[in-house]
Amino acid sequence: MQGAWYHGQQQCWVLMEETSTQHSEDEDTIPYSGPGEPLEYSGTVLWHVDLDEERRWGEMHTRQISDSERCEAKKLKTEAQHMSTEENGEVPSSPEKAQLKYGELVVLGYNGSLPYGEKGRRKTRFTLFKRAAANGVKPSTHHITKTPQASKIVADKSHHSVSYTLSRNQTVVVEYVRDEDTDMFQIGRSTEPPIDFVVIDTLPGNKTAEDCKVQQSTISRFACRIVVERNPTHTARIYAAGFDSSNNIFLGERATKWKRPDSSMDGLTTNGVLIMHPTGGFGQECKAGVWREVSVCGGIYSLRETRPNPQRGKLIDDESNVLHDGTLIDLCGATLLWRSSAGLQKTPTHKHIEELRKEINAARPQCPVGLNTLAFPTRSRTTKVTEEKERQPYVYLNCGHVHGHHLWGQKENENGDRECPMCRTVGPYVPLYMGNEPAFYVDCGPPTHAFCPCGHVCSEQTARYWAQVPLPHGVHAFHAACPFCATQLTGEQGFIKLIFQNDIGT
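User: That's the sequence. What structure does it adopt?
Assistant: Structure tokens below.
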């Protein structure tokens, strides 16, 4: 397909030549997955691409396109694709455009992919690359005004600023200036252009597209920002709140804010941004750390009594907002895991996990009851029980014996418990699925354990680590959860060792 492009700051028009595929009549708006991807329609179509989020059908045209227009189309299409990838903190796949990788943010609760697919800036994993040009900012001077609207700095969209409203008649506006030594990446619920990584509230369990349509979110529209040093050692730091489309951050009169000893201002967002650094690094020996709250200026504080409590916690002088490999970031509705570039090199890959799955299946484990061969499903079939139920591995969560699907030993209770035919233990009976997100693994060990009650399978050390990590839940609660589906863990340990028929008696 060929056509003529032109693009502005966030959009482009494309004149496409004829295609043969029809589209449905009700397909008015289609989720956008990348610049330059044509909408399929019979005839020559002029269509509009929103480089932020979506694409829309446009009006029909029938004229032929000249050779010069084809040449210009190719050139502008390449520019538009490069523009989009730069704005999202990503880079084109071509070797000459390869850039330094700082690290990745991975959302807990999704086993490697969103149920409705990875679309634009809405995905489970966001990679932070070194930008072509620095876009970081740092605080400069502060001004006292009657209202933030009265400040020329706030009104000027070319300047970044943070406004602290102390009263109706007094506002402190801190001006931020360009920092050529840092790159800035912003995370939040908003789909506006300043947000690089769009996150939504995470619901527990295996999810469908309908489950992801949250009616009321507790995640801030501009939740936080991560600033990375462009020069070695590429230190990454996190700050609460992000700059909006006008390059401003507003802390209203009711927001928690205060004056620091050096007379500068600082504050907290409504539901706060929490971080937890693992102790001992993110590996086989790692342990859960202590949850802290990070401020707008990057200070570290003990937790408030509840997330929206107006009283801030105690300043923790000996801790910093520097992200370590394995640091957890909670936005009150979604929890993100930071994996550094160095840490990712020690993490198993999708290929490694797939090899482990094939290795288990190659051993041809059998159901002790039906004597049929069991097989773990592929990644594409891990959200629902396969139609071949007799081959799907199931486990009794109270004893760990692995079976195929059968109807033996059902109990007449509300929990749907079963009696294990091997040891007569009564308990939940659930299907097993591989934990497919490599970033959650603390080692490359074999998948020998499963989380309770969801049945996601991973290595022993990975299960032990996540079972002792208290993840924030709501505005005041914490509980351990499966990193692959966000289901709250149950049982004495939160996980169970799997016992296949070949292991019995060994």
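The longest strand covers residues 136-145.
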